Prior knowledge:
By secondary structure, the protein is mainly alpha-helical. The protein has a domain at about 35-125. It contains 3 helices and 4 strands. A two-stranded antiparallel sheet has the order 1-2. Strand 3 and strand 4 form a beta hairpin. Helix 1 (about 40-65) packs antiparallel against helix 2 (about 70-95) and helix 1 runs parallel beside helix 3 (about 105-125). The N and C termini lie far apart (about 45 Å).
Amino acid sequence: MYICTRCNQLVPGPVKGKCPRGHLLTDPHLLSGTREQSFGEAFFKTLGACIVIFLATAAVLALLKKPSSSAGYILVAMIAIGILALFRGLKWKRQGGAVARLVPRATGMAVACILAGGGLFALGMALNLIR
């Protein structure tokens, strides 16, 4: 079920990714559509996406023979995205209404981004890959 964050209403049948009033059913802080998901589903999808993005970045940097410490910037960006998603979830929780049903998704995404970014950064520091 999609939820329009501007109208604060459920959208059972979106037409071309828009609510009946014409608002897009996406949120820039979640980087995707505003579909209701459980915490676990959002967590595992985001964790997988973060790991794939990091590995792809590391592979491209290895092919370009760039220093591996540049991959640390991607990890910091993941942590920042997680913090923004956490704040978005807290805002929706205070706002109430239909958007409050998006809080588990925002929280799952936030925890996954922070865990992936922080965990991979700590692993890189421990293996002396990031300086």
